[in-house]
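Action item from last week, closing it out:
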Amino acid sequence: MRAVLATGIESVVVNAGMKSLFRRGRPRPVEAHPLPFRQPLTSSFPSGHATAAFCAATLLAEGERRAPAYYALATVVALSRIHTKIHHASDVAGGVAIGVALGHLARRIVPLQPSGTARDQHGGMLR
């Protein structure tokens, strides 16, 4: 739930806030895409997909032995934005950095409960 809420907030911050500050143009493909892609109208910087993927990975990976898998999946998402020529590499790099930073901020604001603890019906800790 924490990752879902954080990536929702991240989306608003990045897509409505940060992108309006930069107004960077998207890459212009030299050749036509084999599949019809919708060309986004928002600023190219930062990549919202990379930001969301790494924000979610940072939150989901906390305390998980499968953490590398979360980051690997986020990397695939981020690199796909360059491969499809929707973003410049620097847009993706910025998105990765912003996503990780927002993920760590969310970790501090809403820390995970230690495993093995539960709460009673009034929110008090049970032992």
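Closing note: The mean pLDDT is 86.
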